[in-house]
Design brief:
The complex is a heterotetramer, with two copies of chain A (about 300 residues) and two copies of chain B (about 260 residues). Chain A has twelve helices and twelve strands. Chain A has helices at about 10-15, 35-40, 60-65, 85-95, 105-115, 135, 180-185, 200, 240-250, 250-265, 270-275, 280, and strands at about 20-25, 50-55, 70-80, 80-85, 100-105, 120-125, 140-145, 145-150, 155-165, 170, 190-195, 215-220. In chain A, strands 1, 2, 3, 4, 5, 9, 10, 11 and 12 form a nine-stranded mixed β-sheet that branches. The radius of gyration of chain A is 19 Å and the shape is globular. In chain B, the strands form three sheets. Chain B has a ten-stranded mixed β-sheet, sandwiched between helices. In chain B, α1 (about 5-15) crosses α2 (about 30-40) and α2 (about 30-40) crosses α7. The longest helix of chain B is centred in the N-terminal third of the chain and has 11 residues, at about 5-15. Classes of the chains: A alpha/beta (about 300), B alpha/beta (about 260).
């Protein structure tokens, strides 16, 4: 299969129209596809439904930019700093618009994606019993001694990984959160990668390939595309960037200013990378994994 | 022994003492990461940490962590996996102790991290459960850490994100099918509250040095019961403080400025 | 943690008493823990419940040796040769004893293990609709438009992997079948390995670690422990050994003779390995995977 | 063009023609492994193979496979994963074509691979479903391959392991909630049977060279319908045979001795 390699702008234009249900930020704190989120903002995408476990600032930015109709997630905020101020303004004041919130727990959102992956209406669980989350999300219901978690079916999952080839075989490592189930549940997957490699690299280790390539519709070579989130082997987390975002986004005006500086006033991720101090974040000490021997004869 | 420590350092030290040797600890965001590190390098050398991002460890990360998903937490990890696998261990009753941060806690240990006011139009939209409700329901016992303010320690939370002992009647959790044992302690900036083994309401167990029972009661939103044997909380030891400062060298989590986070 | 390292004889003695529910052969055709199975036979284990997807000859041997009370599996036979003759004799003639058969499909046995892993009574699926398997296994039931698959909870899962350390961190690669779910669902895991390595190898790649070490109760350094099944990077499949087994096991007497030669008359796997032509099966051409960089600073 | 080929080679050649370019093929044990290899290197260069052991490939393995889990099948694989992930793709309707081996097939394409006689005390205990029932229920369309014997092609199987078109009434599968389309063909050592698109009973579509309609009907356990346009099955081409012999150089699967397996 060919023709999957494209820019982030092309990938978002082709595969994330208004109203799309998008799973993003599925590895929790690491590997968050900020570059993809920023491109959605630049393209003024509207009425998205965002699906994720915890979202470390990215959902807050998309909500603040008015891209979002509905959030299906366990936690939306800023992990090292606390509340999501745009999320607050949207929920508390309908600003810039009202959003629907479908609360989950981390476990239940994983199960909701497994349900979609296995094509069943839902899966049972023992979490959520006794929680008022059952009263606000109609997709979670008491069923006898258990809770039934309705399937959540993303149109597209967007991931950022350490390396991928042009056919969409993606290698990621470190904690993976709900990345695998999101890719299996989604109709299509957009892969952003730090390194674009040949298939001799990806196919040398098929156990590390995250998804079937048949799900992958776009491959974007986007170094730094997860900043300010960490990428094992490539980038440390930029804690101060999260702090500055938290401080500036406390007011709507501050958020607008932040958005102009870091998203709307930036052509693409390559330009963005020239504006951060990437060298101080770059991981330079290598820790290669022991090879697995796939020999067959 | 130093006499100078921050309220957050006190909370971390107290939290670390809740970890028993051999425990599998479900480590939450922020202060619990430090508590695990302190305990592991002191009285609980075989305690393991489980992180919902998808990690298991038997030692603290070598460098500072802003989040559990930071690269140093992956180096020397015993398992890097999916979150649902970590949750499976907790559902099986294999997690001895969980930590949950709370915005609001009530008399019966129920936590609200979702909505202050009406869910339809809240006064404050809090971030949500994350793994909090999962820990609250499935871990064998759990502890919450929070800043002690009258608006945070309330008679009943308006929204139960993470159930504690429910309505406080004995056996509430079992009757409602919750697998784990529920909250055993609330560790605040002023004191430690504990719950009876069968559930029920929080009881003031110890007051941190420099604070009084009266102050704690005044800052608590219900008529707080006081244990007959209420004591003063033991101060952080110098080795506890040394460990805290090793893992939070710049006071990211444990200085006064950390209090403003959120 | 220490003290997990032991011989296969010790591991079976300690962790597989009579009546144990054992998940084994979970990677389907590769990595089948034959050495563990043979040790169960030598120790005259009785009343086992075997759990697996397809079983390539191992279940047949355990059944023929009279170790088994119940089989919970999707397929029991000899993949390259066909029917399982001991399985046939047990089911058709009660020889050497009657066994209970709990039929599954490959998908449903995976789901039954996920149910146990997630501590729920069962999981729904769309497979099995219209199949008479629903009429013979009470653990599979119609429920509306779906089928409910009851949890299957092994006492112990036994796996063979390419490498592990003494604390039980196991690396396996190649197709994994239902290995991961079996380990998570089981109370305990016994790991046999081709190579016993230091933790600097296993922890260099935590994403390749199959199970939480807290589940692993025994580590057995057992080179060749999967023969005649293949082990990527170590051994090719010994097709003729499967053929010979199929031919000899056609009669009960032939099976007894086979058993004496290859199991009862052999002290342990090290001795067994001296009796096969291991050199013709050994994989000698290496195909190392590209390393993943776990660097953090 | 050679005129010499075995019945198994004929079956593999016919099976390979069922694979369309671009198909995701759920490749079963034995002959289908060869059929995928033949098709991929001829008319279906972008067909992918999915193996329940937990593999996806876009090309045949470089050497002989005794099973789908043999080491050569892992080299250059596009994905090595858990079986349940492979099943997920099939449940989602992403598998275009599946292959299932059968011990017994009936008029409506139902397969028995479990029990001949009573399940409580069978005359013959067959190995079971494996992934057969999953393929039969979930793949978009499927094909079965078997030796053509009167005892194997029966009016109604006594035990339905893998459902075909059920009782043969139109829409039986849809009414019973089966997601996939069901069997489209039975490829035997003598002929090819096909099913109408909406289900129903098998119809003789083509007879292999050297065999007759009468012979096929005599070897079939029900009153077999014959298509008006019944033809002779096209022989394996020399390139098909070359491919088969490349992937089965010793005739492990495709010589007379292979027939005795089981």
């Amino acid at each position: 299969m060919t023709g999957k390699l494209m820019t982030m702008a092309e990938a978002i234009r082709q595969f994330v129209p208004d109203g799309t249900t998008v799973a993003i930020g599925t590895a929790l704190e690491p590997l968050i596809p900020f570059a993809a989120g920023h491109e959605m903002i630049r393209q003024r995408r509207r009425d998205l439904e965002l699906v994720g476990p915890i979202s470390d600032a990215l959902f807050d930015q998309l909500i603040g930019a008015g891209c979002v109709r509905c959030v299906t997630a366990a936690w939306v905020g800023n992990v090292s700093e606390g509340l999501g101020h745009c999320y607050r303004r949207a929920c508390e004041q309908g600003m810039p618009r009202d959003i629907e919130v479908r609360d989950h727990t981390n476990f239940s959102i994983a199960l909701a994606l497994w349900a979609a992956a296995w094509k069943v209406p839902g899966l049972p669980t023992r979490t959520l019993l006794g929680s008022d989350i059952l009263t606000t999300n109609p997709g979670l219901r008491h069923a006898g001694d258990l809770v039934e978690v309705d399937a959540v079916h993303p149109d597209v999952a967007i991931v950022h990984v350490q390396r991928a080839d042009a056919d969409g075989r993606a290698h990621a490592w470190g904690p993976l959160g709900i990345t695998e189930e999101a890719g299996l549940a989604a109709d299509a997957v957009i892969v952003g990668c730090e390194e674009l490699v040949g298939s001799e690299v990806t196919l040398s280790d098929p156990n590390r390939i995250l998804f079937p390539e048949t799900k992958v519709v776009a491959v974007v070579h986007e170094p730094g595309g997860a900043h300010p989130s960490p990428v094992q082997g490539h980038f440390k987390r930029d804690h101060s960037f999260y702090r500055d975002y938290a401080q500036q986004s406390r007011s709507a005006a501050g958020f607008e200013s932040w958005l102009n500086t870091w998203v709307l006033g930036v052509a693409d991720r390559a330009t963005y990378m020239t504006r951060i101090d990437a060298s101080s974040l770059r991981i330079t000490k290598h820790r290669p994994s022991a090879p697995a021997d796939y020999g067959d004869e | 022994m130093t006499n100078s420590y921050t309220p957050q350092e006190m909370m971390v030290a107290v939290a670390s003492r809740e970890i028993r040797d051999g425990d599998l600890v479900f480590v939450g965001m922020r202060l619990p990461i430090l508590a695990y590190a302190v305990a592991r390098n002191a009285h609980a050398p075989t305690a393991r940490g489980l992180f919902e991002v998808g990690l298991m460890r038997d030692q603290p990360a070598a460098s500072f962590l802003g989040t559990m998903g930071d690269p140093p937490n992956v180096v020397e990890a015993l398992w890097a996996t999916r979150m649902s696998n970590v949750m499976a261990l907790m559902a099986q009753g294999r997690v001895d102790l969980g930590f949950i941060g709370g915005a609001e806690v009530d008399r019966f240990g129920n936590l609200n991290t979702s909505y202050v006011g009406s869910p339809r139009r809240p006064t404050v939209k809090l971030p949500g459960s994350g793994g909090g409700a999962d820990i609250a329901i499935l871990s064998r016992r759990w502890v919450t850490l929070m800043s002690h303010e009258r608006r945070r320690l309330v008679e009943r939370v308006s929204f139960v994100t993470s159930p504690g002992h429910g309505d406080g009647t004995p056996g509430w959790r079992k009757r409602n099918g919750l697998l784990g044992g529920g909250p055993v302690a609330v560790i605040t900036t002023l004191c430690v509250l504990r719950f009876p083994e069968q559930g029920g309401e929080a009881i003031l167990a110890s007051v941190h040095p420099g604070h009084s029972v009266d102050e704690v009661r005044a800052e608590t939103g219900w008529d707080l019961k006081v244990a007959d044997d209420v004591t003063e909380t033991s101060e952080p030891t110098s080795s506890e403080l040394a460990a805290i400062r090793q893992f939070d060298p710049d006071g990211f989590w444990t200085t006064a400025s950390a209090v403003t986070k959120g």
